[in-house]
Every structure is written in C-alpha cells, then in structure tokens.
Amino acid sequence: MGLLEGRTAVITGGAQGLGFAIAEAFAAQGANVVLGDLDEAAVVRAAESLGIGERAVGMACNVVELAQVEALCERAVSAFGSLDIMVNNAGITRDATMRKMTEEQFDQVIAVHLRGTWNGLKTASGIMREQPGGGSIVNVSSISGKVGMLGQTNYSAAKAGIVGMTKAAAKEVGFKNVRVNAIQPGFINTAMTAAMRQDVIDAKLAEIPMGRAGEPAEVASVVVFLASDMSSYLTGTVTEISGGRHI
C-alpha cells in the first residue's frame, strides 16, 4: 500500500517540471491524479505518460480563471469520488528590473501565482471541508519569496504572498481537518535553470551549503509527505527545500 493509496490529487501546472515530478511521485504512492495546465495537448500526454491508465487525467486549465479551476476540481470528484490533495503549483516568470518591468509583466505574475493559488485554495477547501476525511493543500512558494531576487519584484512579491495566504487559509479551515502548507524550493534542476548562463549557475551553487542543485524528485518527496497522513498534525507551515541556501 502506498502512502496515498485510494486518494485523489489535483496538480496545477502539471505538464512539466516540478508539477510533473510531483505527479510521478503521487502516482507511485497509489494516488489518482488530475493534472491541469495551460497546454492541453502537453498535459494530456503527461497524464498518459504516468503509466497508470485511467487513474490519471489531464485537462486544460488557466488558474487565473476561477471557473476553470472549479472545473478541474469537479473533474477529480466526478472521476474518482473525492478531492483529497490539491497542489497549487502553476507559475510563470516575467523577470525584469523595476525600471524595465511593465505593468503587464507585473500583473501577469501576480495573477498566476497569487490569484491562481487563491482560486485553488478556495475551490479545493470548499470541497474538502465537506468530506469526512478533510484534505491536504500544498502551495508552491519559492525561496525567492523569502529573500527577494534581483529582477523579480513581481515574482518575489507573489511567492511571499503565497506564504501569508497559506497561513491565513490554514487558520480558516483547520477545524474541518483541511490542512494547508507551503513549500519553498530553492535552486532545482529544471529546464528553466538549465537555460541559465554557467556563471549564473556557479554563483548560485556557491550559496548552497550542500554544494549542488536539488532534483525535482527531492521536491516531490516533500510534497508526498505533506499530502500524506505522515504530516497529519502539520498546517500553516513553510518548508524550505534549498540545500541550506539562505538559511
């Protein structure tokens, strides 16, 4: 029996990167998985590639639109009978210094991260609080929300906001056995980080006591813990997955 056997999870931004790594880890632990992503073709392929047949579903979802997030969660309930785990992972970057950043670039990042996370929180907690077993919600923040990063006033603000949102939501729904926690990944090996210049990569690695980047699977394993009964008395927490960077 896996840690998530018989449970149903929704993961936004699930077609690639951390979202897909989390989906793989959930599937390996026995969960039914519903993936949402802007790219419908990619998310359908991602669901199929998990190799768990009808236990995996992929569908288009723009997290900025509440109705689309509601449809994603309703798909989980209609297909599998419950919504036990919600991972608010969808995100974008529009990096630029304040001098060069446009209002549109600022608003896009705030909308996807903050409004998108709120849409997921609102929808999932509304379903979970009516279930006998409650549920677990994991919000994906970033180490950028702890320290602030050059050229990321939009992203750092949004990721910091997710921390405050997590704590406020945890206080609202804890009495219904709905747990809300956040993670803050640091420098993780993904397609986005692989595209960085080597000197930038080297500078970031120099800040990490463990001396290396993290792997998506290492982030996913923490999310499995937060989604499972192993963390049954944790809510409102923020877990850094950073190899000690910025401690």
TrEMBL record:
One of its GO terms (biological process) is fatty acid elongation. PROSITE patterns: ADH_SHORT. It comes from the Bacteria. Keywords: Oxidoreductase. InterPro entries: KR_dom, NAD(P)-bd_dom_sf, Sc_DH/Rdtase_CS, SDR_fam. The keyword Cell membrane does not apply. Residues 7-198 form the Ketoreductase domain. The keyword Glycosyltransferase does not apply. Its EC number is 1.1.1.100. PANTHER family: 3-OXOACYL-[ACYL-CARRIER-PROTEIN] REDUCTASE, CHLOROPLASTIC, SHORT-CHAIN DEHYDROGENASES/REDUCTASES FAMILY MEMBER. Belongs to the short-chain dehydrogenases/reductases (SDR) family. This is 3-oxoacyl-ACP reductase FabG. The gene is fabG.
